[in-house]
Amino acid sequence: MKKLLQVDFDFQGPFGQEMVQAMTGLAESINQEPGLIWKIWTQSEKDQLGGGVYLFADEASAQAYLAMHSERLTQMGIQNIRGVIFDINHALSEINHAPIA
Fold first, then answer.
1. CA angle, 58 as apex, 97 and 101 as ends, to 5°?
2. pTM assigned to the model
3. Which of 2, 32, 38, 93 is most buried, most CB within 10 Å of its CB?
4. Assigned CATH for 3-95
5. What's the distance, Cα to Cα, between the start and end of the chain in Å?
6. Hey, which residues does 7 pair with through a beta bridge?
7. Distant-in-sequence, close-in-space partners of 35: CB < 8 Å, separation ≥ 6
8. pLDDT digits (tens, 9 = 90+) for 46-98
9. Which residues form a coiled coil (predicted)?
């Protein structure tokens, strides 16, 4: 069963196009993670937050990615990492055109 992973953390930048330039290689490598279907990158320069919303094929893939990603972020000096894995209500999500089919 597909799982949604939401991650956010304290982040001082870069944001916007500077983030694109700095993180393109990381974004490309994330596509190789087992079970990943897609990721939406999130950022709030105003609130100094970074993160993402991910769709994984199953719970095990989401759990493994969250553990690996949390360790990677910690090694980068990032603190206050929050990650939550959610079940998806498919019937209601389909009504709102969610890309989970």
1. 25
2. 0.92
3. 2
4. 3.30.70.100
5. 11
6. 52, 83
7. 56, 57, 58, 60, 61, 62, 64, 65
8. 999 999 999 999 999 999 999 999 999 999 999 999 999 999 999 999 999 99
9. none
